[in-house]
Amino acid sequence: MFTFPLVLTLMTKLVQIVNVAYFIIILVIFPELNLSGTANIIRRIFWCSFLFQFCALTLETWVDVTKEANKSVIILHDIWNKYAEKRGIDKRLLYLQFISMRFLTCKLKFTAYGFFPLDWTFLHTIIASATTYIIILVQLKK
After folding, report:
1. Tens digits of per-residue pLDDT, 10-22?
2. Euclidean distance between CA atoms 35 and 42, whole angstroms
3. What's the confidence (pLDDT) of residue 113?
4. How far is C-alpha 61 from the chain's CA centre?
5. Are 2 and 58 spatial neighbours (Cβ–Cβ below 8 Å)?
6. DSSP letters of 86-127?
7. How many domains does the chain fold into?
8. How many angstroms separate the CA atoms of 119 and 126, rounded?
9. CB 100 within 8 A of CB 73
């Protein structure tokens, strides 16, 4: 439900970061193209940092949700311990233990349609791909 807009938004921000960073580098390398002066470069630097912060805040939200969801294992295990001490072990408690062990071994991870994980590794991917694209564009300009 929310995955497609999230993928689209993050990919759009990546393209915008590459675009703005490319123009910053071009304006620094070729100052004769910069008709607006240093204000134009400063404005583009602020816009690029805003786009980067937007991606970082979006990912921080998902990382926090993942951390909180993975804490449920401890809560579930505590519930199991309380019931096991009071009533002994029956079928329902064995199932609760099974679910607790399953949560413990399989950590929750959010992905965007399975394309990329919504954690800090995606931010590294954004930086690496933006840097690669900018280097290619600068080399093509020369």
Report:
1. 888 888 888 888 8
2. 13
3. 78
4. 8
5. no
6. HH---HHHHHHHHHHHHHHHS----EETTTEESSHHHHHHHH
7. 1
8. 12
9. yes
- The b-or-e profile of 36-47 (16+ CB within 10 A means b, else e) is eeeeebeebeeb
Phi, psi angle pair for 115, to nearest 5°: -75, -45
Write the single-letter amino acid at 36.
S
CA distances from 74 to 23, 38, 46 (A): 50, 54, 43
pLDDT of amino acid 24: 84
Q: Which domain holds residue 123?
A: 3-141
d(CA 126, CA 15): 10
pTM of the model as a whole: 0.70
Where residue 114 falls (left for φ over 0; alpha for ψ -120 to 50; beta otherwise) is left
